[in-house]
């Protein structure tokens, strides 16, 4: 997996292993370590003063970007408690899998991986301490009993709110007992823990700003595995972003299950502020929440830290773009806030949206799309869609197809519905769409998305796009790969380039550089072009 053990900034796998670039809805999906495959844990330099012979931990990340962030939090806690990091599985004393429960396929990947680790445990030389295996994250929260009792293979189980307890749990496991903590918290945000980046020298980073979700969409397991919504204090978020800026990070993605309902209640003087209104035509299952500093304030403050650092955020909920459009206005005004929005629709049918408890109609959603495009000219849009939800008819499906055509998203995440225990759908609805029908509908949605994304991306041919270089292209060492402001992958030749400031000698672009690229061709997922010059984010904005 590319840097940070993920598919790329804002990417997730789409439908049956088909990976499409996208700006994810964290209520779902990105498989951080690749499409169902375990991701190696990058080696980090040893912590100054670390103890020789310290127990070595190997971490694998599955699921959404929140799990990438959780991996960094868990590693920061373990590092402070004397553990060393290894990228060699055979060297590990502790193997921790950070897991996803959003679909059955995600959980099956973990069960399959555990069978491999069972063999590794059995082969371990008697001269070494027994290998300890831990399951962390959402699957731990959902399936604690089954994980502990199935073949007695797993030693430690820790839910998303129990990472502070990992040193104690591992100590218990060292004595030969199984140990678990899956208690959900009403206030845990890990605000005082500065995550340790999992890639030395990485140029992009995720910053978690809140945890949990209160929306209770009928298909979604997240409220049951990650708990109620709570936000980090803004001061701790700004501290982390400043630290990342000092380390040379050029792009930060603010993470949360529902970022635009962010509400920092840590400062008393803001606790009586009125609740913002919802977007026109939108509703929610919970009462309006007054008080606190909101997402627009956070976004404003974060964007001021470093004019050369791109800011993204994911995932918002469509209902939480209030009519005064302060967030949309910030995106339009600030050159370093990416002109890209994730607007997860899930379905194009009002009837299905009601069954999903999404809190809006097709018409309200389309009105929001038009409002966004009027407010932010040239904005790149991404979305999530579920094929074959409970009770979905062929007519409902065709309405989703038509929504894909009408909106013409640049980026998309599309999945067949997977029933999850504990959800409202599991208790109240029937998973009555046959698997072969789900498969056919998903294939049609993917084909439609690709057609429209290819048309949307073709409109960029002939234009100059500012690209943040990520590194060499996977398919050719003579080409570089990066992403434009809209989060679309751009590939271009690795060549000697002039500096736009004309103050330096020509040179090749490096990861973390901004390069102006003229687009020469486009597909549904990728732009190709010729590099024009190296530049900066501020200079590129001033020239437009």
UniProtKB/TrEMBL annotation:
Biological process, per Gene Ontology: regulation of protein metabolic process
Keywords: 4Fe-4S, Iron, Iron-sulfur, Metal-binding, S-adenosyl-L-methionine
Residue ranges of domain TRAM in the record: 458-533
Compositionally biased region (Pro residues): 39-49
Annotated catalysed reactions: N(6)-dimethylallyladenosine(37) in tRNA + (sulfur carrier)-SH + AH2 + 2 S-adenosyl-L-methionine = 2-methylsulfanyl-N(6)-dimethylallyladenosine(37) in tRNA + (sulfur carrier)-H + 5'-deoxyadenosine + L-methionine + A + S-adenosyl-L-homocysteine + 2 H(+)
Required cofactor(s): [4Fe-4S] cluster
Keyword Metal-binding: yes
GO molecular function term, any single one: tRNA-2-methylthio-N(6)-dimethylallyladenosine(37) synthase activity
The protein's Enzyme Commission number: 2.8.4.3
Annotated ranges, domain MTTase N-terminal: 55-175
Any one GO CC term of the record: mitochondrion
Family: Belongs to the methylthiotransferase family. MiaB subfamily.
Full protein name: Mitochondrial tRNA methylthiotransferase CDK5RAP1
Gene encoding the protein: Cdk5rap1
